[in-house]
Amino acid sequence: MEHTKATSVGDRIYDAVIYTILSVVMLGTLYPLLYIVSASISDPLAIARGELWLWPKDITFGAYERVLQNPDILTGYRNSIIYLVVGTSINLVMTTMGAYALSRKDFRGRYVLTLLFTFTMLFNGGLIPTYLVYKNMLGLYNNLWVMVIPAAVSIWNLIIMRTYFQTSIPYELQEAAFMDGCSNVRTLVTIILPLSKPILAVMAMYYGVAHWNSYFTALIYLNDSWRQPLQMVIRSLLIQEDMGAMAGGSGESIVEQLLLVESMRYAIIVVSSLPMLLVYPLVQKHFVKGVMIGAVKG
Amino acid sequence: MTSSQETGQQRRLLPRSFRKNWDLYLLILPVVLYFLLIKYLPMYGIQIAFKDFSAAKGIWGSDWVGFKHFIRFFNNYQFWTLIKNTIGISLYQIAVAFPIPILFALLVNEVQSKWFKKSVQSITFMPHFLSTVVLVGMLMAFLSPSTGLFNNVIRLFGGDPIYFMTEPGMFKSIYVFSDIWQNMGFASVLYIAVLAGIDKSLYEAAMIDGATKLQRLIHIAIPCLIPTAIIMLIFQFGSMMDIGFEKIYLMQNDLNRSASTVISTYVYEIGLLGSQFSFSAAVGLFNSVINFVLIIIVNAAAKRISGTSLW
After folding, report:
1. How many CB pairs under 8 A join A and B?
2. Residues 274..303 of B with a Cβ closer than 8 Å to A: which?
3. Hey, where are the domains in chain A?
4. Which of A18, A135, A225, B286 sits 20 to 30 Å CA-CA off B301?
5. What digits encode the pLDDT tens for the residues A230-257?
6. Are B51 and B69 in contact, with CB atoms under 8 Å apart?
7. Topology of domain A63-298, per CATH?
8. B-contacting residues of A 69-88, CB under 8 Å?
9. What ipTM does this complex have?
């Protein structure tokens, strides 16, 4: 297709329409994000008056100062980083081990196991039975491990990785290793893993984003406030509107506090979303490939 | 007994494939344990839907009551509201949000400029990485009647502010359109990948026949997308009753409750907040069974109609 030039008038109009629609879509996606960044560094009074459209007005970093001094947010941040690092490490190890075994055609039982695993996509215990079993039989209630264990393997990612091992790494390489007397585990570590960096990056991102963004597990299983992840903290600030106390400083009127709450709302959104938005470009080039592999054999 | 005799015995006891790949079984053991304990063990708890669960007697020891909780749920005054809201949001989502990534992928596929294509994809991906909490926080900020951007625009044109988040009639639209904004780019990757895999000679042949770009789109690109689209549609219908808890729960407030109570939020409320474990487990089981049946029916239908199916 690249070497065709838009020759006919019809084709030229067609191109113009497509570029226009996509430009509008791009701007429509970007605008809310830019607005939030602008609002987070603007004078709250300008936001309240409705004077802010795109560019920041009367730039101030007051909202960020408040947000970054807030002990709840800092605790949440620290907790979320811990859950993300520990959780993603467990995810990668478990998914690699499972996917490698399933990828081997000479591994007997792989059909039965794949069936056993994929059935859980169609049917599960449901919220309440799961809650009771986790709490009463597995002792996961208000236990820090609940933040990483129930999400230790995603069947979807397991299948993606299995397919990657099967399709992107020539089996002859493994056979050569077996000839040299390598065990399966050694082959996985010395042959497979070095060739799997792209898929590992994609997996780390999938799992990492899921850990960072989840609030449901904490909502249901975690009781202590000092263990709450960032999402639970910002939920109480952004959605349950618990910000009055946070804005409260000395020597400010009620009106000033209410205004500050408005711009803090935007600063909280920026502070909590920035890490994931920064990580994404790093793995972007592998990302589409990961999705494609998943699509080929779903 | 000598060691050679010992291995000889082992050889007879264990199949050859196991002896060769015993370490593969070791590798997958943690994953199998994970699925058994974390995914299958909770199914043992499903029995409380047919029991009167008491914490003292435990899951096993509680008394059987048959279908009491199911009957109570079917006669519940909220039953039809829950079904209507759950299916309503799903159907709205399927009708509006499902085709958009397909259309978007078709458009992106027509773009020849590499950097433009890349920019469109990178930018439309970004919102996918925002958390549900942040997304709903953004909705509340943008739709706020006093300081929100949307109402600023309405005021600019002389209108009265609209209380978007508390208006039950708005709930479905806000849910679906914010989802489109957040996930359109991500959902389109799959379709873009399929389109990129189309054999170039098809296009060349069409060009020799004098087909315009639009004709090529209609006769080549769209037919190539249909099998993938059907699979995705099966997934959507199969999870029709399984509408996500996280976003709805966050968007819910006392004023929009008539439109925003769905089965998953209802189970959470009466089960975990109200401690009616058996009743809410019955509601959840009813939901899971319908889901399960739905996906099997839709899969069979897709197989018959188009020859494409999940299994």
Report:
1. 269
2. 277, 280-281, 284-285, 287-288, 291-292, 295
3. 63-298
4. B286
5. 999 999 888 877 665 555 555 567 777 7
6. no
7. MetI-like fold (1.10.3720)
8. none
9. 0.89
- Alpha carbons within 13 angstroms on the beta-carbon side of residue B12 total 5
Query: Tokens 């109009």, residue?
Result: A13
Residue B10, both tokens = 């082992």
* Residue B106 to residues A4, A289, B101, B121, B290, Cα–Cα distance (Å): 18, 19, 9, 13, 34
Candidates A103, A106, A123, A124; CA nearest to A114 is: A103
> Which chain B residues are Cβ-neighbours of A32 within 8 angstroms?
138, 142, 181
Q: Which two tokens stand for residue B272?
A: 């975990």
Q: How confident is the model at residue A2 (pLDDT cuts 50, 70, 90)?
A: very low
Q: Which two tokens stand for residue A286?
A: 């592998």
Q: Chain A neighbours among B 14-73 (CB < 8 Å)? A: 15, 17-18, 20-21, 23-28, 30-32, 34-35, 37-46, 48-49, 53, 58-59
List the single residue in A39, A109, A150 with the smallest CB-CB distance to B38: A150
Asked if B27 and A102 come within 8 Å (Cβ–Cβ), the reply is: no
Distance CA A298, CA B280 (A): 32
**How are beta strands B51-52 and B63-64 bridged, if at all?**
antiparallel
Beta-carbon contacts of residue A55 (< 8 Å; ≥ 6 apart): A38
- CA–CA separation, A163 vs A294, rounded Å? 8
Distance CA B131, CA B141 (A): 15
Residue-level pLDDT at B4: 47
C-alpha distances (whole Å) from B264 to each of A124, B80, B92, B267, B283 are: 14, 14, 18, 5, 9
Convert the pLDDT of each residue in B227-286 to its tens digit: 888 888 877 887 777 777 899 999 998 899 999 999 999 999 999 999 999 999 999 999
Q: Residue written as tokens 């792989």?
A: A110
Please check whether residue B142 touches A, CB under 8 A: yes
Q: Determine the distance in angstroms separating the CA of B278 from the nearest CA of chain A, rounded to an integer.
A: 8
For tokens 């099998």, the residue is B227
User: Which CA distances in Å does A136 have to A227, B50, B58?
Assistant: 20, 19, 8
